Amino acid sequence: MLYDPTERRIRSFVTRAGRLSTAQARAFEEFGPQFLVEYSKAPLDFDAAFGRKAPVVLEIGFGMGDTTAHIARAMPEKNFLGVEVHTPGVGSLLKQIGEQGITNLRLIQHDAVEVLRDMIPDGSLAGVHIFFPDPWHKARHNKRRLIQGPFVAGLCAKLAPGGYIHLATDWEDYAVQMLEVLSSEPALQNTAAGYADKPSYRPLTKFENRGIKLGHGVWDLVFTKR
Fold first, then answer.
1. Is 205 marked as binding a ligand?
2. Is 66 an active-site residue?
3. Which candidate in 29, 68, 78, 216 could, as Cys together with 62 as Cys, close a disulfide (CB 3.0–4.6 Å)?
4. What is the domain range of residue 113?
5. pTM
6. By the 8 A CB rule, do 201 and 164 touch?
7. How many domains does the chain divide into?
8. What keywords were assigned to this record (predicted)?
């Protein structure tokens, strides 16, 4: 089960308003028709959406898209499907797609919980990336965090055998929760003794690099499906 059908169900995002820059608006017009996939309550045909057959990696919450664009360029042999609700972020990544000539990336602007439930076929994903999700700092809000048992179980159902989940956070409390939740999922096995070394494909963001210089920690977790 990926979600609670009541109004209090977990969502994969906090709605954030934002104005589109002229360049982002232009990117929607120029590149949206080719690279944006409309949300639908029907399984997505990956081969048709990407125009080829290749392993698919899903990224949930790509922000402004810099990391997503970097990884897609670095792994041309894979297809990447990014899900984000923040309109300026989607516009920013569409702009990068156009400027950098990225062809193996498609975007869905919608709640990722519903995208997973309705559009991602079971056993179809080679991997899932969730980098720096909202940590919900106050303890009473921890139940709103995305990485919880039912959600992770739902992710596992969408992974192919041997597929992986890669999480990263710069909040230690959330890192502890992530490790507990993933370790408790019987379908997953940890690739490390605890937290993983940062995989080479994930670049350091400017924000992350600044935090590391200030002594802040960053925790990566990489688990694979049994």
1. yes
2. no
3. 68
4. 22-225
5. 0.89
6. no
7. 1
8. Methyltransferase, S-adenosyl-L-methionine, Transferase, tRNA processing
